[in-house]
């Protein structure tokens, strides 16, 4: 009986631990310098004008797949990005590195 209660306790303890994994297509780091960036992007509020749509999956601790610089001028951007609020409709799911 003591073994059974120990197994139940350990099982409840194990299942109460919450794992948080971010599944993303790209781990993105934002640079404050355009020279150090792999890609310069402009974020638009219009999905029709965007080259790609991204969904922000949150923060991740991966090694950066892509370093971006966010510009305020769409003419200087390599890509125009729309930040989608729905992961199903997005072209890429990205997470951001601190």
Q: Characteristics of this structure?
A:
six-stranded parallel barrel, alpha/beta, 1 helix, 98 residues
Please explain how this structure is put together.
With 98 residues, this protein is an alpha/beta fold. It has one domain (22-97). Helices cover 15% and strands 38% of the residues. It has one helix and six strands; from the N terminus they run αββββββ. It has one helix spanning 2-16, and strands at residues 26-30, 39-44, 52-60, 66-70, 79-84, 92-97. A six-stranded parallel barrel has the order 1-4-2-5-3-6. The protein is flat and about 70 Å long. The chain starts with a helix and ends with a strand. Mean pLDDT is 84; it is low at 15-19.
**Count, helices:** 1
Helix content: 10-25%
Distance between the termini: 49 Å
Largest sheet: 6 strands, parallel, barrel
Broad structural category = alpha/beta
Q: Strand order, main sheet: write it out.
A: 1-4-2-5-3-6
Annotation, overall tally of beta strands:
6
What do the pLDDT scores average to?
84
Oligomer: single chain
Q: Which of globular, elongated, flat, extended, rod-shaped describes the shape?
A: flat
Uncertain segments are 15-19
Number of spatially distinct domains: 1
Content of β-strand: 35-45%
What's the Cα radius of gyration?
Answer: 20 Å
Please write the string of helix (H) and strand (E) elements. HEEEEEE
């Amino acid at each position: 009986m003591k073994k059974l209660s120990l197994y139940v306790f350990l099982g409840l303890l194990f299942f109460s631990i919450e794992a948080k994994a971010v599944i993303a297509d790209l781990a993105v780091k934002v640079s404050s310098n355009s020279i150090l960036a792999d890609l310069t992007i402009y974020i638009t509020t219009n999905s029709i004008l965007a080259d790609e749509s991204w969904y922000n999956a949150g923060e991740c601790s991966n090694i950066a797949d892509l370093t971006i610089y966010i510009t305020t001028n769409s003419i200087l951007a390599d890509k125009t990005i729309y930040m989608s609020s729905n992961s199903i409709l997005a072209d890429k799911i990205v997470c951001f590195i601190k």
